[in-house]
Design brief:
Length: 484
């Protein structure tokens, strides 16, 4: 059966779209040109150089602010159907607010969008990929409820300015990474270590900000621009370490994927019921009078529920979950464990990783994650907005990356042909090597290598770029699936 499956079904459905992604802070550089405002990443890297490997920063990065035409040429050489990039909020609105619009910022993104369209490449645009204006952080950032209105103003401006040419929008990239790394563990910008409320306030306000942007699109732009808008979640697939841990694994999925999906994609809206109950009990046990997970009003539930045109997700890795042993340090959610769930996330020793040690490779997680989403939220159109593998050092010959892409795409095909999932696109992270947050430049995800010792930041094709290009051109993978 498996062999037959492979022979007949290794093709992607007609119209399936392939692309690659980057994000503003990770590639643009030009952190202080013209009237650009300061972002929380500018502030974070300049004031905490020790937080980043080798004290590196994104001041220049791949200098895509100047090299944008090369990025378009690369995307075109690969044959990408779309290029996913993000807008820098403080480059467009230097004060963070709508009173002050940068001509220079607007021109930059106009050139990029028009250049892509000239080559027949669709722009897929993320509004927020982590570079918040510092001015808004000074008011509490994602813990301040009013940020939803500042974000809505920004989204309105962006739809109005670029929406005549952009058809696919992602409001926020990986809310869980922002909330848990930025406000809980404090490992990334804005570097706030506040494990009681930080992540939950951020969680709620990101959902509201997203929903307000979605409703603005609906009300003012959809009828003329005919685009689609969604929210890009980071999904960690979690499996039980032992059969006894099955319930814990389900709670773990609700605590990660669920908190950022149920309010938007479920029929009822609001927090996942299991997490709402759990956090209520847990908070009371800790001596709080109300849940640390903030409530939604009825209006908020309605605002957020259904604010999507498709389900977008980034997926890289998987963990096994087990209860913490007495006195064991769980670390911070997510990736290491959860003090709330009293659980620890571990790896299977057979799972390899790339240069980024947290990104354990387990391709089956992709198919299982999609199956879980369909069980929870129904048969939505799914769009993989990131998936990628990292290498280190100078390396143009990258068989590991090729194998990674192929193995994950096989699982996407199994989801489509065996399970009947409506996955309509796949995005490789990343088009070019870039500033990999706290890992700096040493961890390289690019289909193209960038020479960071060269002031012109020369881009050179890796073998994986040729492989990906063949997949796109033929619309199939050479398949060696042995079991379904
Ligand atoms: C994503 N995980 O972050 C981001 O969207 C990119 O900016 C980043 O460069 C890329 O992945 C590679 O790291 C992630 O722990 C952070 O599963 C953490 C995880 C996944 C993605």
């Amino acid at each position: 059966v498996s062999a037959v499956w492979c022979k007949n079904s290794r093709e992607f459905p007609p119209g399936f779209i392939f692309g690659a992604a980057t994000a503003s802070y990770q590639v643009e550089g030009a952190w202080n040109v013209s009237d650009k405002g300061e972002s929380i990443w500018d502030r974070f890297v300049h004031t905490n150089p020790d937080a980043i490997k080798n004290g590196e920063n994104g001041d220049v990065a791949a200098d895509s602010y100047h090299n944008w035409q090369q990025d378009i040429d690369i995307a075109s050489d690969i044959g990408l159907h779309f290029y996913r990039f993000s807008l820098s909020w403080p480059r467009l609105l230097p004060s963070g607010f709508i009173n002050n619009k940068s001509e220079d910022g607007k021109n930059y993104y106009n050139k990029l969008i028009d250049g892509l369209l000239a080559k027949g490449i669709e722009p897929v645009v993320t509004l927020y990929h982590w570079d918040l204006p510092q001015s808004i952080q000074d008011l509490g950032g994602w813990t301040n409820p009013l940020i939803a209105d500042y974000f809505a103003d920004y989204a309105d401006y962006v739809f109005n300015t670029f929406g005549d040419r952009v058809r696919t929008w992602l409001t926020i990239n990986e809310a869980i990474s922002v909330c848990d790394f930025g406000y809980n563990s404090g490992l990334t910008a804005p570097g706030i270590k506040e494990p009681i409320y930080g992540t939950y306030l951020c969680n709620k306000h990101m959902l509201i900000a997203h929903a307000k942007a979605y409703r603005i699109y609906d009300r003012y732009y959809r009828s003329t621009q005919h685009g689609k808008v969604s929210f890009a979640n980071n999904l960690l697939w979690i499996e039980p370490l032992t059969p006894a841990d099955e319930e814990l694994a389900e709670l773990g999925l609700q605590h990660s994927a669920g908190r950022y999906s149920h309010p938007i994609y479920s029929k009822k809206g609001g927090w996942p019921p299991s997490i709402e109950r759990f956090m209520e009990d847990y908070s009371r046990k800790q001596g709080f009078n109300i849940s640390r997970l903030p409530r939604f009003t009825k209006e908020e539930i309605k605002l957020i529920r259904g604010s999507y045109d498709f389900y977008a997700f980034n997926h890289y890795t998987t963990r096994l979950i087990r209860p913490a042993q007495p006195g064991e340090d769980t670390g911070f959610w997510f990736l290491t464990g959860s003090p709330e769930l009293n659980a620890v996330l571990v790896s299977d020793p057979s799972w390899p990783s790339g240069a980024s040690e947290m990104m354990l490779v387990y391709p089956k997680g992709m198919r299982r994650m999609i199956a879980w989403l369909r069980k929870e939220y129904g048969d939505l159109p799914f769009f993989t907005t990131e998936n990628g593998y990292s290498t280190s050092g100078h390396k143009l010959n990258d068989p590991d990356r090729i194998k990674f892409i192929k193995d994950y795409l096989e699982q996407v095909l199994l989801s489509i042909w065996e399970d009947g999932a409506k996955v309509f696109g796949y995005t490789y992270w990343s088009l070019i090597d870039n500033f990999e947050w706290t890992d700096g430049y040493g961890v390289k995800f690019g289909l193209y290598e960038v020479d960071y010792n060269d002031t012109s930041r020369t881009r050179t094709q890796r073998e994986s770029a040729r492989y990906f290009s063949d997949v796109i051109r033929t619309n199939l993978i050479d398949c060696d699936v042995t079991e379904t």
